[in-house]
Amino acid sequence: MGWYQKLRQYFPPEEMKKKEQMEALLKQNPHYKKEETDSYIMLYGEYSDFIFVDYILVDKEKRGQGIGQRLLEELKAKGKTIILEVEPVDEDDPDTVKRERFYLSNGFKRTEHIRYYRDVGETSPELNRMELYYWSPQGEVDEEVIREQMVKAYEDIHHYQYEEYFDRWEPDPEKLIQYTPDAPEQQVHYLEQGDDHDPDQPQV
């Protein structure tokens, strides 16, 4: 089974890019990298001052052997801020609880003032609420900086050749990733094409 099929078996459709899009990223985007062994698959974007982790998948037969922790340590050794996106914790979904516990135990912090919605799914045009976690060799980092870095990764990776691979309008990452320290929680949703509102503006 190929690496893309393995990712599709594990990650929900709304978190998966199209296969052709990911292959183009690996061939044409110098920042995007893939590491693959029999034990794991990791895809990430590396920039001068930060790393964005796109996917990490450890083979189910190899879990519990510290592979995920080792991969994070290898990224930390590069001496750059690391950003990753995680499904919000759902107490009824043990996997989300374990995932958060894993990243927190490895020194990652969840951003408190970034409201983030993602649209990269192969099959779903809906916006998906995600949480951002980060680790930095400097410890605490201004979340406005994290937000700026994530916008760059979103534009460069999630929206790579977007119009070529998705038959829908391209939302603005500047609006999907917002630094809102004083704003109450709000729900963002897509507009249907043909709506009278600005199609680039997520509605709240």
CATH architectural designation: 3-Layer(aba) Sandwich
At the fold tier of CATH, the topology name is Aminopeptidase
- Overall spatial form: globular
Instruction: State the end-to-end CA separation.
Output: 42 Å
Number of helices: 7
Give the CATH class: Alpha Beta
Describe this structure in words.
InterPro entries: Acyl_CoA_acyltransferase, GNAT_dom. This is N-acetylglutamate synthase-like GNAT family acetyltransferase. It holds the Pfam family Acetyltransf_7. The protein has one domain: Gcn5-related N-acetyltransferase (GNAT) (Aminopeptidase). Helix content is 31%, strand content 22%. The chain has seven helices and eight strands. It is globular. The C terminus is likely disordered.
Brief sketch in words of this structure:
This is N-acetylglutamate synthase-like GNAT family acetyltransferase. The protein has 204 residues and is α+β, with helices and mostly antiparallel strands. It is built from seven helices and eight strands.
